[in-house]
From TrEMBL:
Domain annotation HTH cro/C1-type: ranges: 8-60
One matching Pfam family: HTH_3
SUPFAM superfamilies with a match to the protein in the record: lambda repressor-like DNA-binding domains
InterPro entries for the chain: Cro/C1-type_HTH, Lambda_DNA-bd_dom_sf, TransReg_Diox_bact_type
Keyword DNA-binding: yes
UniProt name for this protein: Helix-turn-helix transcriptional regulator
Keyword match DNA-binding: yes
Assigned keywords, A-Z: DNA-binding
Amino acid sequence: MISEKIFELILRNGMTQKEFSEETGISQSTISDWKRKGTNPSADKILKICEVLKVTPYELLGENETERNAGNPEMSAGNETEKIILEGFRNLSDRKKERILGYLAALQED
């Protein structure tokens, strides 16, 4: 659902819903309705939402890698935090992935 992706991207961008509202010009009550009622934004708001969240309309409206891997338990996230971590990791360069794996190994030794 588009609204779920929007809330995920708001978190990923370190924004509050209030900041998102101010930057997009979309009222906080409308944004709350998306979450509470499970509705999606109207088409005329998509470009501004994409601009603020730094994604393309295709990225917002299209299927993402997490959804494609939903049927594979090894590739799916258990909760929102894991989903953000997995998607962030997948977007890193190979060098940065190696660094993260090194940090993880060191943390597990404690």
